[in-house]
User: Which sequence fits this backbone?
């Protein structure tokens, strides 16, 4: 049994990292908005989904015009990522402006319900447009980066089995890491990042420092949604087929990752996402073996969420959550 | 010359008629203090000036321009620094970042560094703690940081809301000393205090506020010698 767990470990780690990277970046969007408004922006999963559709639509039209073959694949991908980020970034900003800002001083529950409403709206809107154009709401993009790469883990240690990955895995991982590092730099080292942290800690006082709080909140939504949308594109490339409902479960899990890492904490969200992805893949690969076939791979979510519950029982503020020391 | 003038300002705060027609003036180079008991409307007056709370009626004129109900980030840009009650430093930003936040509207790195040196001149302690998180400092240090952060704005008018609250007498002494020093160098100051005795001692003029109304005004000396003021606030 242990032998089997070890054999599949390289593959588990690779699949877990790909999934975890997606969770991590979507989790960033939840955690940033929560940090600044104490709002759980349930529509964020749908921003991710919208990004997947916008990106796929762009890739499909690129290939319809024959551009995919005429320019380097990576350049095409970069263009699509940037364009999608801008679209979903503006979408997130627009949602904040129209739906959340008028409710800024309303009870939190009202805004939460609004966010859920926006979720449904986006799901149905994307479904409507896709069906109108394609006659079907399930969309399959052009296959990109499908080459298989063999990682000979057995040469590291003979107990491992070799792992195989689609080359898109590297695209997902590299892009995700670049996005996370850029965001981390922005938040911790730049003036507007500092303003964002200041607004998250004390909105009223930040305004007294001549910070336009509305601008900072809009910026937060733009960045979170741009990252979420770009991640949607990565997801579509890695997993091939998308539908308008992928944002719901994925969003829920990314939110879980954010809570696991300590909601409001940016590095925590990244860490929580990776951990959740790895746990999930680990469970999917090993549950059937360990339980002698009683529990199928579908129970991976039960396993992952049980871990979450256990962590939260012992550390309710999340792994990196802060019990703040504030003297008055 | 009048720097700030409030005329018949009415403010409602949380459903309460908190300010009932406040008239108040601060001239350039003055220390003006607003004294009164808890809940009299001292903080609300400052909040109405900086725009955190909206005035229902009346006017606030600053540097000859109408500033009534200007949002806080705009009053800050105009040169009014408001050090809020309870200091309200950013607890999870470092001391350096807190100070940088004060100079948020400034893009010139050199100018920011110069202002910071100026702040260290008044509060050398802050220089030793630059990388420490604001929330981990003592109450007195936090008050120094809050004032230092406001000075980073290079304001024309410095509004202080109960800077002595909850601090040890020796620290209060220091803070009042620095307020006086700042004023000697030309800073105009509007000081809200429950510690009326100390506030009136350094103030050129003072106002007494009671349940949202100005009930008395005069020079610091006059109010210090006033029988009613002595009884109510100086005990």
Assistant:
């Amino acid at each position: 049994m242990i032998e089997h767990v070890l054999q599949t470990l390289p593959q588990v780690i690779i699949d877990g990292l790909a999934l975890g990277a997606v969770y991590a970046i979507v989790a960033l969007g939840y955690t940033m908005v929560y940090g600044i408004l104490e709002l759980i922006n349930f529509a964020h999963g749908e921003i991710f989904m919208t990004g997947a559709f916008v990106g796929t639509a762009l890739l499909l039209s690129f290939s319809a015009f024959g551009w995919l073959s005429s320019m380097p694949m990576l350049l095409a991908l970069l263009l699509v990522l940037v364009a999608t980020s801008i679209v979903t970034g503006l979408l997130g900003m627009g949602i904040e402006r129209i739906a959340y800002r008028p409710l800024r001083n309303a009870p939190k529950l009202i805004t939460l319900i609004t966010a859920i409403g926006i979720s449904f709206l986006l799901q149905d809107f994307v479904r409507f447009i896709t069906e109108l154009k394609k006659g079907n709401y399930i969309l399959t993009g052009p296959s990109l980066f499908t080459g298989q790469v063999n990682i000979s883990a057995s040469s590291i240690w003979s107990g491992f089995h070799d792992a195989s990955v689609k080359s898109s895995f590297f695209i997902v991982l590299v892009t995700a890491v670049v996005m996370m590092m850029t965001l981390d730099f922005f938040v911790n080292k730049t003036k507007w990042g500092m303003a964002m942290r200041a607004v998250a800690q004390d909105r009223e006082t930040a305004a007294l420092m001549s910070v336009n709080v509305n601008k900072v909140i809009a910026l937060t939504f733009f960045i979170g949604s741009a990252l979420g949308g770009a991640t949607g594109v990565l997801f579509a490339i890695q997993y091939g087929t998308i539908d308008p409902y992928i944002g719901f479960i994925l969003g829920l899990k990314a939110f879980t990752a954010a809570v696991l890492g300590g909601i409001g904490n940016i590095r925590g969200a990244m860490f929580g996402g990776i951990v959740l992805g790895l746990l999930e893949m680990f469970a999917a690969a090993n549950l059937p073996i360990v339980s002698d076939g009683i529990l199928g791979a579908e129970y991976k979510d039960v396993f992952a969420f049980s871990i979450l519950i256990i962590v939260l029982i012992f550390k309710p503020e999340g792994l990196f959550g802060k019990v703040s020391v504030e003297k008055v | 010359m009048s720097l700030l003038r409030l005329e018949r300002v009415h403010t409602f705060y949380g459903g309460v008629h908190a300010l009932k027609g406040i008239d108040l003036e601060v001239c350039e180079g003055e220390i003006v203090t607003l004294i009164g008991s808890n809940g009299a409307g001292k903080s609300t007056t400052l909040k109405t000036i900086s725009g955190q709370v909206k005035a229902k009626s009346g006017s606030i004129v600053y540097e000859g321009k109408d500033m009534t109900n200007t949002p806080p980030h705009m009053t800050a840009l105009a040169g009014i620094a408001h050090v809020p009650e309870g200091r309200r430093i950013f607890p999870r930003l470092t001391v350096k970042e807190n100070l940088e936040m004060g100079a948020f509207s400034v893009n010139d790195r050199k100018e920011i560094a110069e202002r910071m040196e100026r702040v260290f001149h008044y509060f050398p302690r802050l220089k030793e703690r630059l990388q420490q998180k604001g929330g981990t400092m003592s109450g007195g240090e936090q008050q120094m940081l809050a004032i230092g952060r406001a000075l980073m704005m290079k304001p024309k008018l410095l509004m202080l809301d109960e800077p002595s609250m909850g601090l040890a007498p020796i620290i209060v002494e220091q803070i009042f000393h620095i307020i006086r020093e700042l004023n000697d160098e030309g800073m105009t100051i509007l000081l809200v205090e429950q510690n009326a005795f100390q506030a009136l001692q350094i103030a050129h003029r003072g106002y007494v506020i009671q349940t949202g109304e100005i009930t008395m005004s005069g020079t610091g000396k006059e109010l210090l010698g006033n029988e009613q003021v002595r009884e109510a606030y100086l005990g």
Observations:
- The domain at 2-314 of chain A is CATH 1.10.3470 (ABC transporter involved in vitamin B12 uptake, BtuC).
- Chain A touches chain B at residues 191, 194-195, 197-198, 201-202, 204-213, 322, 324-328 (CB under 8 Å).
- Chain A has one domain: 2-314.
